[in-house]
Automatic annotation (TrEMBL):
Keyword terms, alphabetized: Repeat, WD repeat
Pfam families cross-referenced by the UniProt entry: WD40
Similarity remark: Belongs to the WD repeat THOC6 family.
PROSITE patterns on file: WD_REPEATS_1 (PS00678), WD_REPEATS_2 (PS50082), WD_REPEATS_REGION (PS50294)
Residue ranges of WD repeats: 157-198
One CC-aspect GO term: transcription export complex
GO biological process: mRNA export from nucleus
Protein name as it appears in the record: THO complex subunit 6-like protein
């Protein structure tokens, strides 16, 4: 028994939280880690006036993947979707919160070789009036899409020469951007996905190039106006005008590679291989550099589902998930606990 507890404690010190997702009601946060576990935290209880450190610990954790790490989470109105090694799985939020989760459905990435199925590195749910689609960027260099009503795979976008790190969709659901280890960001029209419409290659742009850090692109996002794209990785993070396909701003983080990025209000939020969350103006000037617990940050999420509990959470190479209530500093940290 003591040996088991010691092992769990050591595993905790080597935990990496790759992704986060807020519940549709905004009261809960789900995280996934390198041990294939999903953990749930109560945002509402942690922010209550009488909250204590006990409210910062997970309220529930379960083994969601038997094949290894989970790299990404996404949500629909009633489902939490997880992926990484092994199949993409869907869980009902209600059953998770009742502490009785079971897989509602699962999708497997087509097996193209003699060995294991490719990993899923990123998920995006697209909800339109015509239906709901799920997009997945994968380790086999492809981006796949499923119609969630029928469960059928409807798209396979092939054009990268190395694995896909991240994807982003325009608000109309018709244009997708995929960022890859091969150094490119491909722009796709999902209505005609035979080949990319355009390809951005940041490492070939002099103002972005950093040969010592590689050419890979680890994160990408498009803004709500559908006019702008931001991406980063080995090359410096850069802002691109989608109509002219030109880089208009460069965001300098010396020796640090950005691994997550998003547009938020009139800012850009990013983080990566240093213990900070960066706040940027779109012209490239840095607004804030907020210290955080993970030495390498893989995900920054903002709770947009309930204004009462609007927080920014940063996760990465730590069993602690930092919570910023005003985005400018860490208020406290959610904490995973040994089983």
């Amino acid at each position: 028994m003591k040996l088991d507890k010691s092992l769990e404690a050591r595993k905790l010190l080597h935990t990496t939280v790759y992704s986060q997702c807020f519940s549709p009601c905004g009261h809960y946060l789900a995280t996934c880690n390198n041990y294939g576990k999903i953990s749930i935290f109560s945002v509402s209880k942690a922010l209550a006036p009488d909250a204590s450190e006990g409210n910062w610990k997970q309220i529930f954790s379960f083994q969601a993947c038997e094949d290894g790490a989970l790299y990404c989470l996404a949500t629909t109105g009633d489902l939490l979707i997880s992926a990484g090694n092994g199949p993409i799985c869907a869980w009902k939020w209600k059953e998770i919160l009742d502490k009785s989760p079971r897989i509602v459905w699962s999708f497997s990435i087509p097996k193209r070789g003699p060995f294991s199925n490719p990993e899923v590195n990123t998920l995006v749910v697209d909800q339109q009036e015509t239906g709901t689609a799920l997009f997945a960027g994968c380790g086999d260099k492809n981006v796949y899409s499923w119609d969630l009503e029928s469960g059928k795979q409807v798209l396979c976008m092939s054009g990268h020469t190395d694995y896909v790190h991240d994807i982003s969709l325009k608000s109309d659901g018709n244009t997708l951007a995929s960022a890859s280890e091969d150094g490119s960001v491909n722009i796709w029209d999902v209505r005609d996905s035979a080949e990319p419409v355009y390809s951005i290659v940041p490492h070939k742009t002099e103002s972005c190039c950093r040969p010592s850090l590689g050419k890979w692109v680890g994160c990408v996002a498009m803004d709500s106006s559908n006019d702008w794209l931001v991406c980063g990785g080995g090359p410096k993070m850069s802002l691109w005008h989608l109509r002219s396909m030109t880089a208009t701003s460069v965001f300098d983080t010396p020796k640090a590679c950005q691994q997550t990025v998003q547009f938020y209000d009139d800012m850009i939020l990013s983080a990566g291989t240093e213990p900070f969350v960066n706040h940027w103006f779109v012209n490239g000037d840095q607004k804030a550099k907020v210290p955080c617990t993970p030495t390498s940050v893989f995900n920054v999420s903002v709770n947009k589902n309930d204004d009462k509990y609007k927080v920014l959470c940063a996760s990465g190479s730590s069993y602690k998930i930092d919570v910023c209530t005003n985005f400018g500093y860490r208020a406290f940290s959610f904490s995973l606990t040994p089983d």
